[in-house]
Specification:
two-stranded antiparallel ribbon, 8 strands
Length: 227
């Protein structure tokens, strides 16, 4: 079985479309007719949220945007919440109780002078999803920077390549949907890297300023609803 979404010419997901028929086209050129149906409602999503020092001025907008997105999620969706800076902390394991998810989101804190261990957070999130029950899986990875410490050195023990390899395992593929926060920081978010991470794992990439975070989060959650 293949999960898919329908995109418009600009690469945006069409949320209200009826698929009449479809075929699978292989790289070698062969095609196969495919039956189309709505996927099962079971969906497992990890919210991996940046709590590094540079997020001090934007943490309230992040919490509000993430909570709104959870409320717009399809019925049957289970969420887990991870916070990351110098450390990766699981604030909530998978639950379909949206109140518990929102309470976990409220616990996300920005730690002064803390780094951004982006790859460690993505690797831990992919590991959680590998162990989730069968169903749709997705990671929403939010950051305002790059994988680095305040001194500019790498923060994570894991690498970009390790994250992609784990998320691309055939038996439990994990699409990584990324959200980059654009700021006036001296260390801006690495949008090119986030786009590549999403592209290689079958996810989507969004980026924008703090006043657009609610839209960016909700867009990705609606993408899951439109599979």
């Amino acid at each position: 079985g293949l999960y898919f979404t329908v995109l418009d010419a600009g690469g945006q997901v069409l949320t209200d479309v009826q698929v009449v028929d479809a075929e699978v086209a292989m790289e070698a050129g062969s095609t196969y007719d495919a039956a189309v149906a709505k996927p099962s409602p079971e969906t497992y999503v990890v919210l991996a949220l940046d709590g590094s020092g540079s997020m001090v001025g934007s943490i309230n907008q992040l919490r509000q945007a993430a909570a709104q997105a959870v409320q717009s999620a399809p019925e049957g969706a289970s969420f887990a919440v991870i916070q990351f800076n110098n450390r990766v902390t699981v604030l909530q394991d998978f639950t379909s109780d949206k109140t518990k998810v929102e309470e976990a989101i409220k616990k996300v804190r920005a730690v002064q002078n803390a780094g951004t261990c982006l790859y460690d957070a993505a690797y831990a999130s992919a590991g959680m999803l590998q162990g989730a029950p069968r169903g749709r899986r997705a990671m929403i990875l939010f950051t305002d920077g790059d994988d680095e410490l305040p001194n500019g050195r790498p923060c994570s023990q894991h690498t970009f390549e390790e994250v992609v390899a784990l998320a691309s395992r055939q038996e439990a593929r994990v699409p990584i949907h990324t959200i980059g926060l654009r700021t006036s920081s001296a260390s801006p978010v690495n949008e090119a890297l986030l786009k590549e991470l999403s592209s290689l794992t079958g996810g989507t990439a969004q980026a924008g300023a703090s006043n657009s975070l609610s839209l960016l989060f909700t867009t990705i959650v609606r993408t899951l609803s439109s599979q």
